[in-house]
Amino acid sequence: MIEDQAKRRTVAGGAALAVTAAMLAGCGQAATPSAPGPSAERLARVVQLAAERAAISDRVAAAKFGTGKPVTDPEREAVVVADARAQADRAGVDPDWVTRVVSDQIAASTQVQNDLLRQWDEHLGSGPSERPDLAEIRPEITRISTELVTALKGAEPVRTQEDCPSALAAAVRQQAGELDPLHAAALDRALRSVCSAPTG
């Protein structure tokens, strides 16, 4: 089953997670393994949703495997970003920031899909045993994007603070569990713009 394959991939070596945490901490410093502080707590839901989005990418890849469908869908992606931006406007969250973060989520998903499809093509018999329906997966992706805007509203006071990178790393350790290298790299990509100052 696809769920079992995803579980085996996402519940793997903790070394990959440690690398991701160190990268998020910035400046080559690994965060200390302490209890999460207030900033990390504000970022926890953002990390949870990013990890969930990366995991769902396995099913999206399985839906496309062997069909010849392109990984990227610019029209669909534009709709997801536009909806998130509109929701950010309504919620009073910086829409440019939300756009960057949601775009990073999409880029991370594309990264997972490309990596998995390449692996399945290169190793015959390693592909998924069933093909999910994209129409059933997309509402889940929409739900994550919607909840992400709410989570970013809660995290917005932290984004420009000096401790944001280390707090984000702490939230990754607390919320994401142990990830294999593929999904650790995707989570790193998905969270790239979380700790960023407003533009302009």
Strand-helix topology:
Elements: H1 2-10, H2 14-25, H3 38-64, H4 74-91, H5 95-122, H6 134-155, H7 164-175, H8 181-190
Can you give a write-up of this model?
The protein has helices at 2-10, 14-25, 38-64, 74-91, 95-122, 134-155, 164-175, 181-190. Helix 4 (74-91) runs antiparallel to helix 5 (95-122), helix 4 packs parallel to helix 6 (134-155) and helix 5 (95-122) packs antiparallel against helix 8. The chain is mostly helical and 200 residues long. It has one domain (2-190): Chorismate Mutase Domain, subunit A, CATH 1.20.59.10.
Q: Could you say how many structural domains there are in total?
A: 1
Given helix and strand content, the structural type is mainly alpha
CATH superfamily: Chorismate mutase
Overall pLDDT score? 83
Shape: globular
Q: Please indicate the percent range of residues in DSSP E strands (runs of 2 or more).
A: under 5%
Q: Helical amount among residues, as a percent range? A: 55-70%
Radius of gyration: 17 Å
Name of the CATH architecture: Up-down Bundle
Secondary-structure element sequence?
Answer: HHHHHHHH
CA(first)-CA(last) distance: 48 Å
CATH class: Mainly Alpha
CATH-defined topology: Chorismate Mutase Domain, subunit A
- Report the count of strand segments: 0
Biggest beta sheet summary: none
Q: Low-confidence parts, pLDDT < 50 over ≥5 residues?
A: 1-34
